Automatic annotation (TrEMBL):
Predominant subcellular localization, coarse grouping: membrane
Record keyword GTP-binding present: yes
TM stretches of this protein: none
Domain of life, per lineage: Eukaryota
Subcellular location, record wording: Membrane
Protein keywords: Coiled coil, GTP-binding, Hydrolase, Membrane, Nucleotide-binding
InterPro entries per the UniProt record, alphabetical: Dynamin_N (IPR045063), G_DYNAMIN_dom (IPR030381), Mitofusin_fam (IPR027094), P-loop_NTPase (IPR027417)
Chain spans, region Disordered: 1-26
Protein name: Dynamin-type G domain-containing protein
Stretches with biased composition (Acidic residues): 13-25
Gene3D superfamilies for this protein: P-loop containing nucleotide triphosphate hydrolases (3.40.50.300)
Domain Dynamin-type G: start-end pairs: 89-357
Length: 739
């Protein structure tokens, strides 16, 4: 049964309309799919049939499950091979005689022995396995040994059996009809070695008369026929009934094991249409045991055992001659054929399993290589691009934060310059300078001017935050684009949605947390940035210097600095300011308690002087005129500038005791920059985590594919080696069979 296996997939023939689709799913041909002989498992695997299909085993079960299911079968097969070897080396031969009930098995055995030893009745009477040996094997004594159940038999050890007289055989069998027994029967055969089957002078032969198949012992008989101690199976079938279902099942199993069977068609003389009977029986034998049919002339005999026992029968003599030849002369068939058949079947099963698993291993190898070709370049690209991604993200974070910070400083500095000039920090609709109410409402006017200018600064802060939102949005878009550029396909992109309006939250918890981290940035810090300037009482407080800034005017006219931006040209306000400033200074010292007293004394002395009285009147007149001009002409326009200068001085001046970034502009610039950096860092962190997880996943895929490739290559090599070794063993078996 040499087989040149192809590993191409062939369709399952369960449904013709699906044959083309299933063609790619099968691992072996349908003709081979049912060729499991030794490794057949009693399983049902869905629509593909039984466990005889290796394709079904490999495709529908896990590898570990297949190994566990077949492990016991393979171990049992190895034990069976060892026992077959022992049987081949053993010179004795065992012949099993079995068949259906009332087929005449016991009559046939008696005819072979030329003695009426086995019980014969119209009712089924043989319920025991009676193994007949030559009395020479029992020191020439004719007797019956009843074997004890569960104890290995040894003729030398009487504890393993019970002796009985041969005449008691029929009563023992009848009394124990429902008990399955094993009996050893030792007989003397007076015939010559050329006529006797038991005492042939060549090999020791034992005849085993088995119970009928369609009794409860049918399964035991079928198993017995497969055991290694049986060399020849003689199957007795009634010419009247032909082969029953149980007989067909037994013959099919036995022919797979022995290949050649010796078939006796008993009660043939009672058949009227003998030609039809012969034809029908041979057709059934051809289906059940093809090798037996090929040698039907020697292995299939049509006889009548009952008449042969009473008188000579040529057909029975031919049967005896063929059986002696098959057992004694053609030992290659009777002795070696069961072993070679079993080995051939075993090697066939190994071929099927190896071929199917080799295809699976090759498929896994191809899949592993495909996975490597897909995953390894992606992993290498990610490794090479990881540093570039980190640098790009850091650049986006730094650029966005710096840009937001610088833009905030530009907007706030421009706003403070405009406020210092008495203008709104930013020009927006709905915000205008208050109108001058007249001299009587000058104090309230100064207060409203201060509030309006502070509100414009607050609006400038909001504009700076809006600019930061735009800059941050651009940075977030860049981070998302970096994700598209660096994340491999199949990796889920970030679902985070950036909401610019959520930046610069004034939530109490957020302010509290930020205040713990940096006291200069939120309410309660140096500039209490959490509260708008237009709502702070300390900034809204109006003083006399908001109306008339003496210090500023004095600094313009008496300071040595030439870089003043203010126009120092003489005006009525300047004259009044100078005059008033002169009165507040005596001897170049600022007025104090002592200075005031000294000034009063000197002023009294001065007025007592004749010369001083001459120019005092013009000075007082100038003061009066200047004050009048000031209140009439300059006051409505000077108050905004005065208030603006004071606001600018308050927000811009840097105290030597404060750090550099504690000024109003620096504090807001730092806050805005940090907020932008926080958002960009969160987006960057999310991308880094996705990138890291994706790279770890690709790394696991590569390692898994490499491990699968290594195992698959090893499996392919091992299965090919097993296939070659099995082929060598098959050649040896075939050469022995041919010889």
């Amino acid at each position: 049964m040499a087989r040149s296996m192809t590993l191409a997939s062939i369709a399952d023939e369960t449904a013709e309309e699906q044959s083309n689709e299933e063609d790619e799913d099968r691992l072996v041909a349908p003709s081979d799919a049912a060729d499991f002989h030794v490794f057949r498992l009693d399983l049902k695997l869905g629509s593909h049939g039984s466990s005889s299909s290796p394709a079904a085993l490999v495709s529908q079960l896990e590898k570990a499950s297949i190994a566990n299911l077949l492990d016991d079968r393979i171990g049992a097969s190895m034990n069976h091979i060892n026992k077959l070897r022992q049987r081949v080396e053993d010179k004795s031969s065992k012949v099993l005689v079995t068949g259906d009930l009332n087929a005449g098995k016991s009559t046939f055995v008696n005819a072979l022995l030329k003695r009426e030893v086995m019980p014969v009745d119209q009712q089924p009477c043989t319920t025991a396995f009676c193994e007949v040996h030559d009395a020479a094997d029992n020191d020439g004594k004719e007797e019956l040994h009843i074997l004890k159940e569960g104890i290995p038999y040894s003729r030398e050890d009487e504890s393993t059996y019970t002796r009985a007289d041969l005449s008691e055989l029929e009563s023992i069998v009848s009394e124990n009809e429902n008990v399955q027994q094993m009996l050893k029967v030792y007989l003397r055969d007076a015939r010559s070695p050329t006529e006797s089957l038991l005492s042939n002078g060549i090999v020791d032969i034992s005849l085993i008369d088995a119970p009928g198949l369609n009794r409860d012992s049918m399964k035991t008989t079928a198993v017995f026929a497969r055991q290694e101690e049986i060399d020849v199976v003689v199957f007795v079938v009634s010419a009247e009934n032909h082969f029953t279902l149980s007989a067909k099942e037994f013959l099919w199993n036995a022919s797979n094991e022995k290949a050649y069977l010796f078939i006796v068609v008993n009660k043939y003389e009672q058949i009227r249409d003998k030609a039809k009977c012969r034809r029908l029986v041979l057709e059934q034998i051809k289906q059940l045991s093809p090798r037996t049919f090929e040698d039907a002339e020697d292995l299939v005999h049509f006889v009548d055992s009952a008449s042969a026992f009473q008188k000579d029968s040529q057909s029975f003599e031919n049967l005896e001659s063929s059986l002696r030849s098959f057992v004694l002369v053609k030992r290659a068939k009777s002795k070696l054929t069961p072993a070679s058949t079993y080995l051939t079947h075993l090697l066939s099963d190994v071929d099927l399993l190896v071929g199917a698993n080799a295809i699976v291993a090759e498929t896994e190898l191809e899949r592993a290589l495909e996975d490597l070709n897909r995953s390894r370049p992606v992993l290498e690209k990610m490794k090479n691009g990881r540093e570039a991604l980190d640098e790009s993200l850091e650049h986006v974070e730094e650029a966005g934060s710096s840009r937001s910070r610088m833009r905030t400083k530009e907007i706030l500095n421009d706003a403070l310059v405009r406020v210092g000039q008495g203008k709104l920090g930013v020009e927006v609709s709905g915000l205008n300078m208050p109108s001058y109410p007249g001299f009587l409402g000058i104090w309230e006017y100064a207060r409203e001017v201060r509030k309006t200018l502070l509100t414009s600064v607050d609006i400038a802060v909001k504009l700076a935050e809006d600019e930061a939102r735009k800059i941050t949005s651009t940075g977030v878009d860049k981070v998302f684009q970096l994700g598209e550029d660096h994340l491999p396909e199949g990796v889920e992109r970030s679902r985070r949605v950036f909401m610019p309006e959520a930046m610069f939250s004034t939530d109490k918890l957020a302010r509290k947390k930020a205040r713990r981290q940096s006291g200069a940035l939120l309410a309660g810090g140096v500039y209490t940035l959490g509260i708008s300037l237009g709502q702070r009482p300390d900034m809204l407080e109006t003083t006399f210097f908001d109306i008339f800034d003496v210090q500023h005017q004095f600094r313009i006219h008496f300071s040595d600095k030439s870089s003043e931006e203010e126009d120092p040209s003489l005006t009525a306000l300047s004259v009044a300011s100078v005059g008033l400033g002169a009165l507040t200074m005596v001897g170049g010292k600022a007025l104090g308690v002592r200075g005031v007293i000294e000034g009063i004394v000197r002023l009294t002395d001065l007025l007592g002087n004749q010369t001083a009285r001459k120019w005092a009147a013009p000075v007082l007149g100038a003061l009066t005129i200047g004050a009048a001009v000031y209140f009439v002409l300059e006051l409505p326009s000077s108050i905004p500038r005065t208030v603006g200068r004071r606001i600018q001085a308050t927000l811009v001046k840097e105290n030597e005791e404060r750090v550099e970034d504690a000024s109003f502009v620096e504090a807001h610039a730092g806050r805005v920059g940090r907020e932008s950096r926080k958002v960009l860092r969160l987006a960057s962190w999310d991308l880094r985590e996705r990138f890291r997880n994706a790279m770890e996943e690709r790394g696991r895929e590569v390692r898994g594919a490499e491990d699968m490739e290594r195992k698959a290559r090893k499996a392919v090599e091992w299965f090919r080696e097993v296939e070659q070794r099995a082929g060598g063993v098959r050649c040896a078996v075939e050469s022995i069979a041919e010889a």
